[in-house]
Design goal:
single chain; 5 helices; 0% strand; elongated; transmembrane
Length: 124
């Protein structure tokens, strides 16, 4: 029971990390110090997507599920939990890279806005 609970909690942490990668730039508008955490997290997220790597949290979750007597799953977190629910049927590597560029562009826009606000504040 404890291993299953740990695996479930790890799924929540994994999902929260993905949300932070996607939308953490908005937190930077509120708290600038978060930029260090977010930029490194976003860089990791982009590398994982562009290179089709498996996040280390996925094998960790599978190991916990195996200890709980459950079966793990193949592939990565995104393919197992998010693709069936969020991504369209027929997702191709080309579409996945496009989605990665969308996330990258969104975060670049947020950081450009944040830097502009900082410059305006520093000149006042």
């Amino acid at each position: 029971m404890a291993y299953r609970l740990q695996a479930d909690m790890l799924v929540l942490v994994h999902f929260a990390f993905i949300l932070f990668v996607l939308f953490g730039g908005f937190i930077v508008l509120w708290r600038r110090w978060v930029a260090c955490l977010h930029l490194s997290s976003a860089a990791w997220g982009v590398l994982v997507e562009f290179n089709s790597w498996v996040c280390p949290l996925t094998p960790w979750e599978n190991a916990l599920r195996a200890k709980a007597g459950e079966s793990g799953y193949g592939g990565g977190f995104v393919e197992h939990y998010l693709v069936p629910r969020i991504y369209p049927v027929g997702l191709t590597p080309r579409i996945q890279v496009l989605l990665g560029f969308i996330v990258l562009a969104m975060n670049l826009a947020i950081y450009a806005y944040a830097l502009t606000r900082l410059r305006i504040r520093s000149t006042d």
